[in-house]
Amino acid sequence: RFVSAPDVEALLLATFSYDPVTGHFVRLIDRSQGGHSRGIGKRAGHPAGVGYRTLRLHVKGKRIVVPEHRAAFLFMTGKLPVDKVDHLNGIRDDNRWCNLQDVSTQENNRNIAVRETGRQVVRIGGKYYPLLTDGYDCPREAAAARDTLNSILRLF
What we know:
- With 156 residues, the chain is α+β, with helices and mostly antiparallel strands.
- 31% of the residues lie in helices and 25% in strands.
- The chain contains 5 helices and 9 strands.
- It has a 3-stranded antiparallel sheet with strand order 3-4-5.
- A hairpin with a 4-residue loop joins strand 1 and strand 2.
- The longest helix has 15 residues.
- The relative contact order is 0.12.
């Protein structure tokens, strides 16, 4: 049985709610068989092996696993992201809306140094230097400052 993206999207929207401030998903309805409740009203999702969190669904008899950071885009924009989702602060289970950005593979790979150090960085001559981000309220603002500085220095 083929599972289409609209089937998955519709079931995600019907089964969970998303809080963009905390980045948490909550289960709204029970999709289990046998009539017993499994976590309605509680935080949904499961840790994945590499630091991400996932939501699990059953669509047309198939088990579907959707990364929470991708589902957040569906809840906030009405569609799944086209390419990659970058966690701006490098913390893979921080799915707050202000920490997520739809990026190309190239842009996502550029942030490897951020993931390794946990800090926003500026690349100068092939080396990464920390960008002081204490004055920013959100990782998205810190990333914008980093990108502005990089474009001024014409490094990328």
